[in-house]
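Task: fold both queries, return tokens.
Query 1:
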Amino acid sequence: QVQLVESGGGLVQAGGSHRLSCAASGSIFSINHMGWYRQAPGKERELVAYITSDGDPNYADSVKGRFTISRDNAKNTVYLQMNTLKPEDTAVYYCNANVRTGYYSSRRDYWGQGTQVTVSS
């Protein structure tokens, strides 16, 4: 099994910065892409950013230029640096990782439990 554990959620003022971390552990053979999604109250879960195994980042238009995703492959950890936060960034943020658990295993997605980020105006 694979576990994703997020940390770093909390309350931050608009215009401020915050960083989320997510560490993957368990039966990991390799990790393909890793990413962050978020879900605000009454809305569907949406992609925030993801990063490939080669370190190529991709962002939703709503966070481009404000958020930076990075990863440490040695630690199986992905980070989300969030700058110039806005109240509309308030959501539960979920970590995602596409993992192979063995040489002959197919890839599958795993999810963290979610961490709340609240941006006050």
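Query 1 returned. Query 2:
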Amino acid sequence: QVQLVESGGGLAQPGGSLRLSCAASGSIGLIYLMAWYRQTPGNEREQVAGITTSGRQVTNYADSVKGRFTISRASADKTVHLQMDNLKPEDTAVYYCKAYYGVADVTWGQGTQVTVSS
């Protein structure tokens, strides 16, 4: 089993920055992909960014955050960060970390609130 804990959410002004972290525990050696999603009330979760956690690093981003958000990893402990710059009010959401591990297992973190407002 894998457990995830997010941290780093909070309030930022438009144009500001926040850095989210996702720490994995448990069977972290089985994790091969981690991703950040976000969700606003009444909407489905959407993927924001993803990163492979072993071997060659591969990343992907939603068009809405390209050039503003950066996902990175610390391979040793499978911690993943999401650096969010030039934040916009439409980035306001609950952000969730997701890990893919084993054969076809997934797990989610509890979520962290990000609010962008002046």
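Both queries returned. Flag for query 2: The CA atoms of residues 89 and 108 lie 24 Å apart.
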